[in-house]
Amino acid sequence: MFSLRGASIVIRHAGLKSRGLATVSDAQASFRIPLIDFSKFQSGSPVEKKSIATEIVSAFKESGFIYLSGHGIPAPVIENAFAKSADFFRMPTDVKDSLRWEDPRANRGYVKIGREQVTQSTDAAEIAALREKAPDFKETMEIGRDWDSVWKNQWPQETDAPLFKDTMLDFFGQCHALHVHVMRSIAIGLNLEEGFFDDKIQEQCHNLRLLSYPPIKRALLDNEGQARAGVHSDYGTLTLLFQDSVGGLEAQNPHTGVFVPATPIPGTIVVNVGDLLARWSNDVLRSTLHRVVAPAAKPINAHETITPARQSIAFFCNPNFSAEIACLPNCGTVPKYPAINTETYIVGRLAATYS
C-alpha cells in the first residue's frame, strides 16, 4: 500500500518475510522516506541544527533516502538546468556522439542509449552479458569540475547549445555547496565536529549527470532484467536527484526486497547515501538499492503502447579522489572494510559499468 502521510512516504507490506527464518517486523516492513526541511539546519539555532542532523542521520540509517525541502537551490535555477538539459538531448545524434564518453578516469561526455548497464555486479563478463540482453534505456551527459588540469569536460559549441556550459557550471557549484552542508549535518548527527568532512570533499571530484529517458514502446521493456535503469546503488557519498513529474525512481526495502516508488514531490530533492559513505560509516549509514522503471504507457494503436519521456538530473557527490576511506570515528570499533582510495574505487566501478 502506498500513502503520503504527513512529511513522509510510507510503504507497508503485510505478511512478508525476510530471507531468513524470522518474520519481518512491522517496523522493518514499513519503509519510510522522510521529507526534511533543511532550511532549519542552514539558518536555525544550534538546537534546531542538531535536531535536523539527527533526523537526517536516522533516516540514512534506516532507509538511506530522504526528500529535502528548503535546500536553498532556487526553483528557477533548477528549471533552467532542466531546460538546457532538454536542449542538449535534442541536438543531432552526430553532434552528441562527437562529445562521447571515453575514459572512466575522466567520466565526462555523452553516453548513448544502451552503452551503460548499471548493476551491482563487478564481473566484467557478467556486466557485458547484461548489457547485451537488457541495456539501460537512457542517454546521459556527464560533467565534472571544469578546472581539472588533466580531464576536460566535453562541452558542445555555444552555437549548438546556447548557455549550456554556463548553466551547468553554475548548477554544479550550487549542488556542491549543498553537498557540503548536508555532509556537515551528517557529521553532527554522527557526533563529529561539524566541519569534519570539509577538507575531505573540497576538491569537488563530483559528477553532474544529465539524464534523458526517451519514449519507448512498452514491449521493448518487457524483457527479463530490462528497465530504464537497472537495480544498483550509487558509488560516492551522496546523490542529489532532481526529478521531473513523470517519476519512475524506486528504492528497495532492504528487509522485504519490495521496490517502493520515490514519488516526485514538488520543490524537493531526493538525497540518498552512496556506497563510499556507507563504507566510510562502517555500514551505519545505508546505501540502498534502487532502479528506474517506466511509468504507465499510453496506447499508440490497437496492439502497442508507449511510455512517456522522462528527465532527471543527478549530482553524484564524491570525496576528494586523494582521500582514504577508512572507518569513521563513532561508527564501531571493528572496521568491516579495509581502507581504500576514493579514485581507485570510483574509477574501478565506472570501468566495469561502461562498454
TrEMBL record:
UniProt KW Transmembrane keyword: no
Top-rank taxon, per record: Eukaryota
A single GO molecular function term of this UniProt record: oxidoreductase activity
Keywords: Iron, Metal-binding, Oxidoreductase
Keyword Oxidoreductase listed: yes
Every Fe2OG dioxygenase domain range: 201-319
PANTHER family assigned: FI07970P-RELATED, OXIDOREDUCTASE, 2OG-FE II OXYGENASE FAMILY PROTEIN
Family per similarity comment: Belongs to the iron/ascorbate-dependent oxidoreductase family.
Protein name: Fe2OG dioxygenase domain-containing protein
